[in-house]
Design brief:
Order of helices and strands: EEEEEEEEEEEEEEEEEEEEEEEEEE
Keywords: Calcium, Cell adhesion, Cell membrane, Glycoprotein, Membrane, Repeat, Signal, Transmembrane, Transmembrane helix
CATH superfamily of the largest domain: Cadherins
Mean pLDDT: 91
CATH architecture of the largest domain: Sandwich
CATH class of the largest domain: Mainly Beta
Largest sheet: 5 strands, mixed
Number of domains: 3
GO biological process, one term: homophilic cell adhesion via plasma membrane adhesion molecules
Shape: rod-shaped
InterPro entries: Cadherin-like_dom, Cadherin-like_sf, Cadherin_CS, Protocadherin/Cadherin-CA
Number of strands: 26
Strand content: 35-45%
Main location: membrane
Protein name: PCDA1 protein
Distance between the termini: 131 Å
Length: about 350
């Protein structure tokens, strides 16, 4: 009997026969107790009766695939004699069960460095039907973010999901896949689950340092604390992988100031300030190396070079090569006679080094 047969469906049965006559051959029928089936007996005359097995309750093959009933025929004699037969009713499967996953949500984690072909998850569904009704295939229905479905492949038979590309924590931190299992019944039925893939950060990004504002050249007489440059430092990684420390070399006469006292998280603004008085005549151009190092293991480092020229200040007086010149002059020397050539130098530059003698 088909699993989807509706209650009230009737199925004819072959009746019994009795070789006696009269009341001894008058037959009555009973059916062993069953919540799914009843017996309907119709009499055309006292010796001819039609039997029907009537479905009283819907069948469920997945609960009871086979029903076994006993049909008893009793005659009207004294004492009454009986005959029995067993009814073996097989329930023919209908595609009334969709595939069911053993989990509604699969939560997995993978590092962003996972290689192409890495197994992401192994989803598993079952279908209690039988035959082609229980045969099903898997597919990736959709993904969040949209457009990332091609990053994954699924084995249509086993439900094994693998990477078909590379993950990037800095691009997408959580992938959600909608998986569908569809059976081959008529009509086909489907079950669904989701796979949530959390991408774990790997220290694959070096810190970056760049200049947002630069005031050069720096006046030689600039005061200590003068801001020479504004810098930004960032690292696209997260956690300790994105925690950055910065320093400048040489350590003098410039230094860095920041809100986090030398330890910058993800993104920060720094100020390059003057920590010691400048002397252009000693060092006219300063070449600085700014270094940023993150807290990953192994640590990654980014560097940049700053060239800072010093603008001259008139901080040096002209210096004669002698403090006293002694000259002898003949008493009768004419006017205009060259007595001495004086020489002074000034280590400044430009107009600050132009000398006039009075």
């Amino acid at each position: 009997i088909a699993e989807l047969s509706v209650p009230g469906s009737r199925f004819p049965l072959e009746g019994a026969s009795d070789a006696d006559i009269g009341a001894n051959a008058q037959l009555s029928y009973t059916l062993s107790p069953s919540e799914h089936f009843t017996l309907d007996v119709k009499s055309s005359d006292e010796n001819r009766k039609s039997l029907f097995l009537v479905l009283a309750k819907s069948l469920d093959r997945e609960t009871i695939p086979v029903h076994r009933l006993v049909l008893t025929a009793s005659d009207g004699g004294r004492p009454s004699l009986t005959g029995t037969m067993e009814l073996v009713i097989s329930v023919v499967d209908a595609n009334d069960n969709a595939p069911q996953f053993n989990q509604s949500v699969y939560k997995v984690q993978l590092p962003e460095s996972a290689a192409e072909g890495t197994v992401v998850a192994h989803v598993n569904a079952t279908d209690p039907d039988e035959g082609s009704n229980k045969q099903f295939s898997y597919r990736i229905l959709s993904s969040i973010p949209m457009g990332n479905k091609e990053l994954f492949t699924i084995n249509t038979k086993t439900g094994e999901i693998r990477l078909a590309g590379t993950l990037d924590f800095e691009d997408v931190r959580l992938h959600e896949l909608q998986i569908e299992a569809t059976d081959k019944g008529t009509p086909p039925l489907s079950g669904h689950c989701s796979v949530e893939l959390e991408v774990l950060d790997v220290n694959d990004n070096a810190p970056e340092v760049w200049v947002t504002s630069l005031s050069v050249p720096v006046p030689e007489d600039a005061s200590v604390g003068t801001v020479v440059a504004l810098l930004s430092v960032s690292d696209r990684d997260s956690g300790e992988n994105g925690r950055v420390r910065c320093w400048v070399w040489p350590a003098s006469p410039f230094g860095l100031e920041a809100t986090f006292a030398g330890s910058y998280s993800l993104s920060a603004s720094l100020a390059l300030i003057l920590t010691k008085s400048l002397d252009r005549e000693t060092i006219p151009v300063h070449r600085l190396v700014l270094t940023a190092s993150d807290g990953g293991r192994p640590s990654l480092t980014g560097t940049m070079e700053l060239v800072i020229s010093v603008l001259d200040a008139n901080d040096n007086a002209p210096q004669f090569n002698q403090s006293v010149y002694k000259v002898k002059v003949l008493e009768g020397s004419e006017l205009g006679t060259l007595l001495l050539t004086l020489s002074a130098t000034d280590p400044d530059e430009g107009i600050n080094s132009d000398i006039t003698y009075l």
